[in-house]
Every structure is written in C-alpha cells, then in structure tokens.
Amino acid sequence: MQTQRLLVILGLLWGVAQAETWQVKVTDNDGDPIAQAAVYVSSQTSPPKPVKPKEIVIDQIDKEFVNHLTVVRTGTPVSFPNHDKIRHHVYSFSAAKVFELPLYQGSPAKPVVFDKAGVVNLGCNIHDWMSAYVLVVDSPFFALTDSHGIAQLELPDGPGYVLSAWHPQLKSLTPDTLTIAANTPHNAGLVLTMNLKKNVRAIRLPTELGLNIGYR
C-alpha cells in the first residue's frame, strides 16, 4: 500500500457459536484514543461470499472531501458529488486507482469503481489543501474507530481471521501484532498502539490567510 504501512492484528477466532461483535481499541503511544482509524479483516480461512457492492458517496462540501477516510470493499462504485458553487477537479495517481474527474459541478455522469485493494490518495487539482483517502479492502468486514478509538466488527462464525488497522498518519515501519488465542471471549479488551506522524497539510486559501482570491 504505497509507502504507508499496515498494523496487523493476528486473530485466530474459532470456537465461536455465532457471530459476535469484537471491539478493538486503537491508541497512540501516550495511550490517547485514535479516531478514524480503519480496522478490517485482511484474511480469513473461509473467504466471504461475493456480492455486488452498493454505490457509496464521497461529498465535496465547503472545499473539503467528506469524509477524510473512507473504507470500501473491492469493486465498490464511488460517486463524488460537488455541492459547492465552484468547480472541482478530483484525481488520484495512486497505484490502487488512477482516475481523473476534470472540472465539474454537481455529480459526474458515472461513479468511479475501486477495483484493486490498496490505499488511494484523493486530491483536487484546483484546491491543493483538499485531500482524502479511500482504503480499498478485499473484505466486507471493516469499521472506523469512533472518538474513543473503538472499532466494532461483527464477524461471522469462522475458523480464523486476520485483522489489520490503518490510518493516514501511520508512521510505524514494522507491524505490531496481537494474537487472539482460541476460545478468547469476544468481549476481551483488545488494544492496539499506533505510532503516528505529524499531520501536515497544505494551507487553505483564502479563508486561512484572509485573501480575496477567486476560484473557478
């Protein structure tokens, strides 16, 4: 997934009578919760049944992408409606998906299908500060952590899973692993620590500098 690394939670989840909701807490090195981290099943012994993913939406509102991080299953079509009164030019040069939506308002004629697993960096060719990420995974089981750093995944009965976690600011070069032994109760406290790099983004114009600069 480009230069960004994954943190991996290795889970051997068998002996479960039925689907259970598993909670994973993601924190930084100081123990503070990390919100908006993606946790997902990256491998399982019994592959999930193929289904046709439903179309999802990543909005553009007030010259920002909403949301900053979106997780989708491989093959998911994504629409990029522009709700601003100016035009945007959405693009990505990421290995997992290269595409371009030239200057437009409203909604593009067709959604973009994300057909390869990986991290996709989104940008706007007009507004440099606009950035977002699409994490494409080969699984229907994924969740984002809430403000308390908690991700909840309801996993079906099965002999084994590998859970992975990712965040746009992930700094660690070596994955941390956590083994969930057989017969581990689904409500066991699972904590994963991430080492994050500083969040640096382009200055937003004109609002952050008070400049009267027009946009197309």
UniProtKB/TrEMBL annotation:
Keyword annotations from UniProtKB, A to Z: Signal
Species of origin: Methylovulum psychrotolerans
Signal peptide feature range: 1-19
Record CDD domains: MauL
Origin superkingdom: Bacteria
Keyword set includes Endoplasmic reticulum: no
Cross-referenced InterPro entries: CarboxyPept-like_regulatory, Cupredoxin, MauL
Keyword Signal on entry: yes
Protein name: Methylamine utilization protein
